[in-house]
Design brief:
The complex is a heteropentamer of chains A (364), B (508), C (326), D (313) and E (299). By secondary structure, chain B is an alpha+beta fold. Chain B contains 15 helices and 24 strands. Chain B has a seven-stranded mixed sheet, with helices on both faces. Chain B has a six-stranded mixed sheet with strand order 14-21-13-20-18-19, with helices on both faces. In chain B, strands 4-5-7-6 form a four-stranded antiparallel sheet, covered by helices on one side. Chain D is an all-alpha fold. Chain D folds into two domains: 72 residues, no CATH class; 225 residues, MetI-like fold, CATH 1.10.3720.10. In chain D, helix 5 packs across helix 8. In chain E, 68% of the residues lie in helices and 0% in strands. Classes of the chains: A alpha/beta (364), B alpha+beta (508), C alpha/beta (326), D mainly alpha (313), E mainly alpha (299). The interface between D and E is large, with 72 and 58 residues. Bound molecules: adenosine-5'-triphosphate (2 copies) and magnesium ion (2 copies). Chain E: Its main location: membrane.
Chain lengths: 364, 508, 326, 313, 299
């Protein structure tokens, strides 16, 4: 495979200094928000990142967008080193990368109309003239299942799901190659969540987008991702194809995460084995393997030596000294399939749903 | 209401002095206290004309007017109990005159040749040239006799942290801007003959500063204080109606308000303009507005009650006549502009006036401003706080100024303000006129009353004709005293309302 | 049959606003028995929290209970005086909230807040109360509980705070615990810890739990009975098995379909179209009808009643069971 | 906690230095010549010149400032240009009465403001709330001197109940207390409003907070909920406001001190600046700014007391 | 803790109003107009501004023509509201005084808030500048406004200019804090990051994102500050720094007229009353605005 990655990160690191003093110049500590991560995103691919709160997912998203300067490491976009790209070059690159945020309530400027918001990237980059921009806004609104007249309204007049659509429309305005989605569905209700996930998937198929999809919902990630990276305390502990990560996780943290995820299956109740303790502070992460304070398989070596990502048999890479030897985790095996009644009814629902939709389209 | 402490007299005033060293302060607020703390060789009677003995029992003046010999009383003691001698008098004068003290009032002592003690109780005061005002000047607080020991002990802090003098009261304490506390001088028996009593009657005097007019009025009315002569004029009438209060006016008070013109600045250098202003301003109205009928409008350069006042100046001073003022201006070529302000040779008839912000000046100046607007002259007013004003008034930034001053003789007044040697201050008019200088010097050096009167009279007439000033009003001195107070009588030399205050006693 | 710990009948809670009356909870019937867990699911704004606050007698100001009865151990507590309610609240009925970050008072120590809860209902010395507080902290398995007593909430992690909340709620050994989305704000690993803890505590004390959530995963994990709410109404009620294996209401079905599952691969999620109607512009007829693919004219005009299909499985749908109308 | 305090103190140092410099420069650009001030009204030019040399006013600016700071470091604030009294002595004499007045004003106005604000917030939207807010808003809308004079007229003059001409004695004496009542009401009167309003907003905020709901859910009585859980948490912004408003209070203090002839530092400062008495003016500026900084330092420490989250940073 | 904890407080001066996207122009107006007090205040402010703006045409006489014969006449005796110490008609003086006072406070508020806003935005937007700028603001803040006024007056001479400068300077640090606090909240909103991510220039970001979203807080602060400035101005007048004669200005009129408080109370009381009304109306308006803008307080 010699395909060139769209985005390539090597040893990416971000330290947030904690400053003190009269003019806040003295650095007293550092938050190691992202601490040396490597990943690639291929064209048309979705790389999902999962991890607990505070593990550095959003920081990684911001780094990938070059919204913040990395403390170390390199970042390449289509082979071009953009780690220290100048303002002008960056501006050009911005057309190819866009971001969708978690909070639909905070991610749209409340003082601009929806049309203005969606047109803004085009205005900033001088793409097209007024009429053509207006045309494009309408097209984009339609694309995210909103009506053109919605463009005249302000964000507060929309529900969370609709706002998230507006955010997606804005991200699409310049026809980017990569969209970074920082927990795009976490704040939404389940029913709305599904709408957005479907929309994102449709768009990817139509426009050949790549996603860096950040989430803490393992189920959602499984649904959308091609490859999955699992983060813990600023580091990627395991990364690889979805099937390998979910089917044969090699890092104890990945395993624990999967085990802890609640399943809509009452029969599995009580089988979850829980991970003890809390995530340590990223200000002074534990030495050696960062997971060793909570790891059920911890050994002496883990406390002293930091494991590196290693190639595994399943095609993924895991950062655990004992990745090969720890017990196999096989949740899918113990999982009961949905009941026949449920399956049948869901199929019925789907059918009706599609029919109702085409009805509506026909009458419109 | 408030019970006063027995034997303690509380006097209210609106301002405090910068210090109470006789030779360092020119403030009237200092003089009124220094008069109580220390004595001068001679005193001035309530008529403001007669010089009376005080520390000096008697004095002789040589025929050439150059040598004054003072015979001192023998019973005088400082607060410390030490007897006062001629040496102390000489020391006090020398301190006043020494260049190190750089006293702002030094000039008042005349052109001194030598002052020496002939014996313990005789002082000889020799001048280089005659000085007809000398005795009056020596009655001012600046010429007070102070205790050498106290001066040496306190140094810079003399009159700040303590005071040694022979006055009817002794220094107790001073809290700046707040109060001065004075205690009766137990030795004091040598009061001037203008009083019935030679000794102080009150155990303790507290001079308290109350800057707010209303507060002061309420305080006097409610008996929280005993007396004041700083009462705002508007309050006097209603206070008169209160039976428990005694309101007395000193008719011989010499404290005049005037507006001076910088005679070398554009607009102001036109005598016609100055004359027109003198004609246009209704002084009676200003006096009425500012002093509620208590002040006397001045229709002459100096107060008619002052020694050597020249009655002819009253005739020469223009009367209030706006039409005449307009005529004067028209004649001089000041044409009415489209905006109502006159113009001559491209010069607008406008000028800037500086003054101190007190209760009367805003009223008077706004009145004057309105009067001038009617004849097409624009006066801009800028009033400054008392202390900052002096600095401002020393500059050349302004065209006219309003001030008031206390004085004792005509010669004193004119030589203070109009001699060319007094430029730029206090001769802020920049009045540089040889004739004036000559006349004033002649009056100063006159050895007989006639010559002096003639010379200073001529000077007064000359100045009136040139309209260097616009006299406004002679301020009233009104002493308000409460129920407990007896024997109070307003005096008013250099603004000191109760002077030695010897006859004042408390009923309780 | 034993008397349910809590039985709600026809509970209606109304908010009077400038836009009109909002029936946040509209004629809800529920019951939960000793030692059992009732989960209430539903999307944001469907009235779950208001329902629980109604039980607590803590409906925020413009709101009030307009109708219905709340029987707690057989006694109607809906019309109780504030003082009487206080003796029950925190004592026999305890509640924990969604946001462990903000639900504890940041300016008081953890110990103080637990002690306060104890002493509000028990006449014990502060020393004894402190011992009890320590006891309850131990019960919720907080590491080094002695130290925690004197710590402030901000010094604890989210999971620990939620444990403190639980400890506080359990300190008076309530017969009913209401938990309003106790795990939503927590990470998955912590969420599992808390759910396990609740289950263990219930086994120990036999208290009844009403747990509110919108995560069907959580429901599957802990519920005995489930009530699905939509727009202020209960649309389906049943045992956890009924709901997961035999969902009858189209809304419940939609929820199931919207959830991506780890165990099954689907290309496309079954989404429910549209959105929850605003509370003051509820549709005519069945409240779900604008979003329901099965809706017909009856649904658009007539409100369905909650009716029993099986023993203990109730649904409010004109079309139940769906197969018949397909 | 201690570190917190020390850190705040360190931050205050450059601020104080800035105040010093600004004050010094301001006094420099004042066109009034201090030598003339010193010389007095009728002095002649050569005397003024002589005094100028004496005062070192012919030296370059930086030198004067350096000298000033050097002396200041040794606790020497110079002597008044006008009456030659050491500035420190004057400051020492006036600071007490001002602190007394401030204390007496805050002593009643802050608790009252907090009480009114809390009551208003608790009974939000009722007539009581509206009345309280009306009074508070009215309180911040009256010119201080007007209030003072009206009080004098009523209590001092008309009913003759209370003295109003200066300090009656130390605060612990009967006379002292009587004399401070009217000035304290005047000055405190303008403070009740802001405190009440801030408290109301703040308590209202907290009353809606999750932890108050928790407190209620515990079955606590309303009194405990409001006092222990709402008010305590609401105090932080109120304390901030008080710290910031001290500056305003000082403006009021100048006026109050004048109206009631109170021997405070406000009047001293005004007099000193108006008369270009530079050392004295500088001294008062330093003391007043120091007071302001100190109060805000106290506020910071109070935060730490009120809010443990601040403590640990 | 971030830089917010400075010497003078951990919380921005005014209680931070959450910038909520539920802000609705129309609804703010509706909330505002549904409050009887606010409507009355609005009407009063409108009337007063109108009266001030058209003073030269409304006033029954010349504000500067003194009539020393008819001085200190009680209301009704001469003219409807009597005359002042110069015998000038009080109505005229009040109208012109209002005009000056409003202009003076407007100038100070505009100047002070303008500069303060620039400083506040700069401090929020450029964290490197923040320490220095905020320390500078601390210096200004700890410099009592009244002393500043005095010093300025000593430089430029007492008068409106000095008052305006002093009041502006006193306003700057407060405004800077309010704006910085508000801007920091906005800065942390995701939409600002979103704007950055499309490569927007700083200028456009500040003007189109920061400024509009801080406006509501600025607005509330300004309306409340306006009243404070009028009162501070009257305190400055009291110590003799106000407008110079014959300019009519309410604070100066009230403080000059206080000399006659016991005899002709109207000379001081009427301007005081007018100040009271103006400030009261502005405060009520500011409070109502705060309530209207604060989603938490909105019903
Ligand atoms: N600007 C910043 N300054 C200091 N620390 C920061 C900053 N931004 C993030 N951090 C810290 O870096 C760490 C990682 O933060 P990040 O927001 O990337 O986590 P996350 O995985 O996105 O968490 P969440 O799931 O809660 O969104 C956290 O500990 C956070 O406190
Ligand atoms: N103070 C209030 N005034 C008016 N309506 C209110 C108020 N509080 C709640 N409501 C209404 O009550 C309804 C139910 O709210 P509730 O908080 O119970 O929802 P929820 O199911 O708990 O949602 P979430 O999952 O978001 O917590 C909402 O639609 C809301 O509009
Ligand atoms: Mg994040
Ligand atoms: Mg809820």
């Amino acid at each position: 495979m010699t395909m060139q990655p769209l985005l390539e990160a090597r040893g990416l690191q971000k330290l947030f200094p904690i400053t003190k003093g009269i003019f806040r110049r003295r650095v007293v500590a550092e938050v190691r928000a992202v601490d040396g991560v490597d990943f690639d995103i291929m064209p048309r691919e979705t790389l999902a990142v999962v991890g607990e709160s505070g593990c550095g997912k959003s920081t990684m998203a911001r780094l990938a967008m070059r919204l913040i300067e990395p403390s170390a490491g390199t970042l390449r976009f289509e082979g071009e080193d953009i780690t220290h790209a100048e303002k002008g070059d960056m501006r050009r690159l911005r057309r190819d990368m866009q971001i969708v945020f978690q909070d639909p309530y905070a991610s749209l400027n409340p003082r601009m109309t929806v049309a203005e918001i969606i047109a803004e990237p085009m205005v900033v980059h001088g793409v097209g003239d007024g009429p053509s921009q207006r045309e494009r806004v309408k097209e984009l609104l339609r694309r995210v299942d909103l009506a053109p007249y919605h463009g005249q309204r302000y964000p507060h007049e929309f529900s969370g799901g609709q706002r998230q659509r507006i955010g997606v429309a804005r991200a699409l305005a310049l026809s980017p190659k990569l969209i970074v989605c920082d927990e795009p569905v976490s704040a939404l209700d389940v029913s709305i969540q599904a709408q957005i996930v479907n929309l994102l998937q449709d768009l990817q198929q139509e426009m050949g987008l790549s996603y860096l999809f950040i989430s803490h919902g393992l189920a959602v990630v499984k649904h959308v991702a091609d490859r999955v990276a699992v983060m813990y305390l600023g580091q990627i502990v395991e990364i690889g194809p979805k099937a390998a990560i979910y089917g044969n996780p090699r890092h104890p943290y990945t395993q624990a995460l999967l085990a802890a995820a609640p399943q809509p299956d009452p029969s599995r109740r009580g089988q979850r084995h829980e991970l003890a303790g809390d995530v340590p502070s990223p200000m002074n992460p534990p030495p050696g393997c960062r997971f060793h304070t909570r790891c059920p398989f911890v050994q002496e070596r883990c406390r002293a030596e930091m494991p590196m990502l290693r190639e595994m048999a399943g095609g993924q890479q895991a950062a655990c000294h004992f990745a090969e030897t720890i017990p196999v985790y096989a949740p899918a095996l113990t999982m009961r399939a949905p009941s026949a009644k449920l399956k049948a009814r869901l199929a019925l629902y789907k059918e009706r749903h599609v029919a109702a939709k085409s009805d509506a389209a026909a009458t419109a | 209401a408030q019970q006063q402490q027995p034997g303690q007299l509380t006097v209210l005033r609106t301002i405090d002095a910068d210090n109470y060293d006789p030779i360092r302060s020119t403030a009237t607020a200092a003089a009124e206290i220094v008069y109580l703390l220390a004595d001068t060789l001679v005193s001035v009677d309530f008529d403001m004309q007669t010089v009376q003995p005080l520390l000096a029992e008697s004095w002789e003046v040589s025929d050439d007017g150059l040598t004054y010999t003072f015979k001192l009383r023998q019973d005088v003691k400082f607060c410390s109990g030490r007897a006062m001698t001629a040496e102390d008098v000489v020391f006090s004068f020398e301190r006043w005159l020494s260049p190190e003290s750089s006293s702002p009032t030094k000039f008042r002592a005349g052109n001194v040749a030598e002052i020496r003690a002939i014996n313990d109780h005789t002082v000889e005061y020799r001048l280089n040239e005659p000085y007809s005002d000398l005795l009056f000047q020596l009655a001012l607080s600046f010429a007070s006799v102070v205790d050498r020991e106290s001066v040496e002990e306190l140094g810079e802090n003399f009159g700040v942290q303590g005071f040694g003098g022979t006055g009817p009261y002794c220094w107790n304490s001073w809290t700046p801007r707040q109060e001065v506390v004075l205690d009766k001088n137990p030795h004091y028996t040598w009061g001037p003959p203008i009083y019935e009593n030679g000794t102080p009657q009150v155990e303790r005097m507290v001079w308290r500063v109350i800057p707010e007019a209303n507060t002061m009025m309420a305080a006097v009315q409610t008996g929280q204080a005993d007396m004041t002569y700083y009462m705002a004029p508007f309050a006097i009438e209603s206070l008169r109606a209160i039976p428990t209060l005694t309101v007395q006016q000193q008719d011989n008070y010499l404290y005049d308000n005037f507006v001076g013109f910088k005679t070398d600045k554009p607009v102001m250098n036109d005598p016609a303009m100055r004359r027109a202003i003198n004609q246009a301003v209704n002084r009676d109205a200003l006096a009425q507005a500012a002093f509620f009928g208590l002040g006397t409008a001045l229709h002459s350069l100096l107060n008619p009650k002052v020694i050597d006042y020249d009655p002819a100046t009253a005739e020469l001073t223009p009367a209030y006549d706006p039409d005449a003022a307009i005529a004067t201006l028209e004649e001089a070529g000041w044409e009415l502009g489209s905006d109502g302000v006159r113009v001559k040779d491209g010069q607008r008839a406008e000028f800037l006036l500086y003054g101190i912000r007190n209760t009367q000046n805003p009223v008077m100046m706004e009145g004057m401003q309105a009067d001038l607007r009617r004849i097409g002259v624009e006066m801009e007013i800028q009033l400054w706080d008392g202390t900052a004003a002096w600095g401002r008034l020393a500059t050349q930034e302004f065209d006219a100024f309003v001030l008031s001053y206390p004085y004792v003789t005509a010669t004193e007044a004119l030589s203070l303000y109009f001699r060319s040697t007094q430029m730029p201050t206090p001769n802020r008019m920049n009045w540089n006129n040889e004739e004036t200088d000559r006349l004033i010097d002649e009056a100063r050096q006159a050895t007989d009353d006639e010559t002096r009167k003639a010379a200073i009279g001529a000077a007064q007439r000359q100045l009136v004709e040139a309209d260097v000033w616009m006299p406004i009003v002679s301020q009233p001195m009104i002493l308000v005293s409460g129920q407990r107070v007896e024997g109070a009588r307003p005096h008013g030399i250099y603004g000191a309302g109760i002077y030695k205050g010897l006859d004042i006693s408390l009923t309780d | 049959m034993t008397v349910p710990v809590l039985e709600i009948a026809g509970l209606t809670t109304i908010f009077r606003t400038s836009m009109g009356d909002v029936r946040a909870v509209d004629g809800v019937d529920l019951a939960v028995e000793r030692g059992r867990t009732l989960c209430i699911v539903g999307e944001s704004g469907c009235g779950k929290s208001i329902l629980s606050l109604s039980v607590m007698g803590l409906v925020p100001t413009p709101g009030r209970i307009a109708q219905g009865e709340i029987f707690f151990e057989g006694r109607n507590i809906a019309g109780l005086s504030p003082a009487d309610m206080r003796t029950i609240r925190g004592n026999q009925i305890a509640m924990i909230f969604q946001e462990p970050m903000t639900s504890l008072n940041p300016v008081h120590t953890v110990g103080f807040q637990i002690v306060e809860a104890i002493r509000a209902h028990q006449r014990v010395s502060s020393k004894a109360a402190r011992a009890l507080a320590l006891e309850s902290l131990k019960k919720v398995r907080i590491p080094s509980p002695e130290r925690r007593l004197d710590e402030y909430p901000h010094q604890l992690s989210g999971g620990m705070r939620q444990r403190v909340m639980i400890a506080m709620a359990l300190s008076c050994e309530p017969t009913l615990l209401i938990a309003d989305e106790p795990t939503t704000a927590l990470d998955v690993t912590i969420q599992a810890q808390i759910l396990n803890l609740l289950r263990d505590l219930q086994a120990e004390t036999g208290m009844a739990i009403v747990l509110i959530t919108h995560d069907l995963g959580v429901v599957a994990e802990i519920a005995d009975d489930v009530a699905v709410m939509y727009a202020g109404k209960v649309v389906e009620r049943g045992s956890v098995g009924d709901i997961f294996d035999d969902p009858q209401h189209p809304y419940t079905l939609g929820l199931m379909g919207s959830m991506p599952r780890i165990d099954e691969e689907t290309d496309r999620l079954v989404a429910i179209d549209g959105m929850v109607p605003p509370p003051f512009r509820l549709p005519q007829g069945c409240r779900f009808n604008p979003r329901c693919p099965f809706a017909d004219d009856v649904c658009r005009s007539e409100q369905p009643q909650l009716t029993a299909l099986d023993e203990g499985h109730l649904v409010a749908c004109h079309k139940a069971p769906l197969e018949l109308y397909a | 906690m201690l570190r917190h305090t020390i850190q705040r103190l360190l931050i205050a140092i450059p601020v104080l230095f800035g105040v010093l410099l600004v004050g010094f420069l301001l006094m420099q650009v004042v066109p009034t010549d201090p030598a003339i001030v010193r010389a007095g009204p009728t002095a002649t030019q050569d005397i003024v010149e002589q005094i100028r040399r004496q005062l070192g006013l012919d030296q370059p600016l930086w030198y004067q400032f350096g000298l000033y700071v050097w002396r200041l470091a040794q606790g020497d604030l110079g002597v008044s240009l006008i009456n030659n009294v050491p500035v420190t002595r004057e400051l020492a004499a006036t600071i007490g009465p001002t602190v007394e007045l401030m204390f007496a004003s805050l002593f009643w106005s802050i608790p009252l403001g907090i009480l009114l604000g809390t009551v208003g917030a608790y009974y939000r939207g009722t007539i009581l709330d509206r009345a309280i807010m009306a009074v508070s808003v009215a309180g911040v809308s009256i010119p201080v001197f007007f209030l003072g004079l009206v009080l004098i007229w009523l209590f001092g003059f008309h009913w003759q109940l209370l003295p109003f001409t200066g300090r009656g004695g130390p605060l612990w004496s009967w006379e002292g207390i009587r004399a401070i009542i009217l000035p304290a009401i005047t000055l405190g009167g303008v403070f009740v409003g802001p405190v009440a309003r801030m408290t109301r907003t703040s308590v209202l905020d907290v009353l809606g907070a999750d932890h108050v709901r928790t407190a209620r859910a515990k079955g606590l009585s309303e009194r405990v909920v409001v006092l222990r859980h709402a008010l305590r948490n609401a105090m932080v912004p109120v304390v901030t406001l008080i710290g910031l408003q001290i500056g305003f209070l000082l403006g009021g203090a100048v006026v109050t001190e004048t109206v009631f002839s109170w021997p405070g530092i406000g009047r001293l400062a005004v007099g000193a600046i108006l008369s270009s008495d530079m050392p004295m003016a500088q001294g008062t500026i330093i003391i007043l700014s120091l007071g302001f900084i100190l109060i805000n330092l106290t506020v910071d420490v109070l935060y730490a007391l009120l809010d443990p989250r601040v403590r640990s940073t | 803790m971030s830089d917010v904890t400075t010497t003078t407080g951990a919380v921005p001066a005014a209680a931070p109003i959450m910038v909520e996207d539920t802000f609705v122009r129309a609804s703010v107006w509706r909330v505002l107009t549904s409050d009887v007090g606010a409507v009355i205040a609005l009407v009063i402010v409108g009337l007063l501004v109108f009266a001030a703006a058209f003073a030269p045409w409304i006033a029954p006489s010349d504000p500067y023509s003194s009539d020393l014969v008819n001085m200190l006449k009680a209301p009704g005796e001469v003219g409807l509201l009597g005359t002042d110490a110069q015998g000038r008609d009080m109505i005229t003086r009040l109208l012109f005084g209002l005009r000056t006072t409003l202009l003076m406070s407007l100038a100070s508020v505009v100047l002070g808030c303008g500069i303060g806003a620039v400083v506040g935005f700069a401090a929020a937007y450029y964290p490197r500048l923040s320490g220095l700028l905020m320390r500078l603001m601390d210096v200004l803040l700890s410099f009592p406004a009244i002393l500043f006024g005095l010093a300025i007056a000593a430089i430029f001479g007492p008068g409106l200019i000095a008052v305006v400068i002093a009041l502006s300077v006193a306003t700057i640090p407060l405004m800077a804090r309010v704006v910085r606090g508000a801007a920091l909240v906005v800065m942390h909103q995701e939409y600002v990051e979103g704007a950055r991510s499309i490569g927007m220039s700083d200028r456009r970001l500040i003007l189109k994102y920061l400024l509009p979203n801080c406006l509501s807080q600025i607005f509330v602060f300004v309306s409340l500050r306006f009243g404070q400035v009028i009162l501070l101005g009257s305190a400055l007048s009291f110590i003799g720094l106000g407008a110079q004669p014959p300019t009519a200005e309410l604070g100066t009129m009230a403080s000059d007229g206080r000399a006659y408080l016991f005899f002709a109370p109207h000379v001081s009381a009427l301007p005081s009353l007018l100040i009271f009304i103006v400030v009261l109306a502005l405060n009520v308006l500011g409070d109502a605005l705060r309530d209207a803008l604060d989603p938490k307080l909105r019903k």
